[in-house]
Amino acid sequence: MDYTPYPRHDVLCIDMRSFYASVECMKRGLDPQKALLAVVGDPNRSGSIVLAASPALKKKHGISNVSRYFELPQDSNLIIANAHMGDYLNISLEITKLMTRFVPKEAIHIYSVDELWLTVDGLRRLYGSVEEIAQRVQASIREQFGIESVIGIGDNKFLAKVVMDIHAKKAPNGISECRYEHVSDSLWPISVEKVWGIGSRMKHHLNRMGIVTLGDLAQCSKAHLKKRFGVIGEQLYWHAWGIDLSPVTGNFTKTEQKGYGHGVTLLRDYTKDEINACLLDLCEEACRRARRDEKEGRTIHLAIGYSSEHGKGFSRSTSIDTATNDTWEMYQVCLQLFEQFYKEGSHIRKASVTLTNLTDEVGTQLSLFEQRDRQKQLDYAVDQVRERFGSTAILRASSYTSGGIAIDRGKKIGGHYE
């Protein structure tokens, strides 16, 4: 591959190691590298997921971020911490602010609460080599927050991310570099499922084609991959050669909203009689977000997941004549779908609703719709109260029943308690 036509940048991909656990350790005055600490979503549930484990806990007991609460060892030194998403978001914001000491905000691309990219083009005269810049970034995060980080360096965001995932986490200093010329040696021997952007389903399809490693993918025909997987197949081919043309600086614009959805995994089995209140709360949140963006939708989707002993559940949608962002209208359609496809006697463990086929919201002037217009004004008034005083400032009576979820979810950030 001749890499001459392709852009070269100095891109860092930075990952905060055991971020949630490190924050909890620092709050307690503990060394994240020595303390045995696990962050658990809900310690009152034995099956709750371990959201983060300190490096020492991972090393000593093999605990990972997919372990369950009941799998934690009986160790007298083990500390169980509730998840505090508000704290993690605040620290993440402070780390992002810290990065502006090195680069302008246009050169920072946030990937998640504990991971981001920096484009450090033009900083060599100030700070030295790219690896020295990475060391400075590491040291600044450690000194200000007590959190260790690992950093991948590459010509583009893909290379920086993949070398960080694959090699930097194992490197003694937590830094690894991969340029175009290093791809065949550093990345091609890697199994495809370990590469960023390739999930279990894609791995299955690739393995059936005889593609096991990233090198196998690189040697596959681009035309064949595109025919099999469409645009994704072509992207896979270029990524296998380390090529990524996504922008590394500038204002990363938000993609156009395709729909407004809200879903929940319930903490217990719900009966048919209880699910109505849950669906109403879900429709309320989906429509609130649509109203915020002045959008309406004509297609309403309902997905219900049963408890394991009752099968998988169902996922159905229907379209209506007039676009809406009215909670009650969406709820009534969801009830119709539920009554039509629900398997009698089944217990429910998951539910989600989505409003799609979007159009811009337009005011209704005809007197025929005067009642609907009054309802819309009421919805917007309630939205404003919630925006100012919190999502639980005004609730429907159904939210206070056993099936309601709004009160509990109002106490959480990202599905976990603040």
From TrEMBL:
GO cellular component, one term: cytosol
UmuC domain segment(s): 11-199
Domain of life: Bacteria
Gene name of the record: uvrX
InterPro entries: DNA/RNA_pol_sf, DNA_pol_Y-fam_lit_finger_sf, DNA_pol_Y-fam_little_finger, DNA_polymerase-Y, IMS_HHH_1, Rev_trsase/Diguanyl_cyclase, UmuC
Example of a GO MF term: damaged DNA binding
Name assigned to this protein: Putative UV-damage repair protein UvrX
Family annotation (PROSITE patterns): UMUC
CDD domains hit by this protein: PolY_Pol_V_umuC
GO terms, biological process: DNA repair; error-prone translesion synthesis; SOS response
Pfam families with a match to the protein in the record: IMS, IMS_C, IMS_HHH_1
Family in the record: Belongs to the DNA polymerase type-Y family.
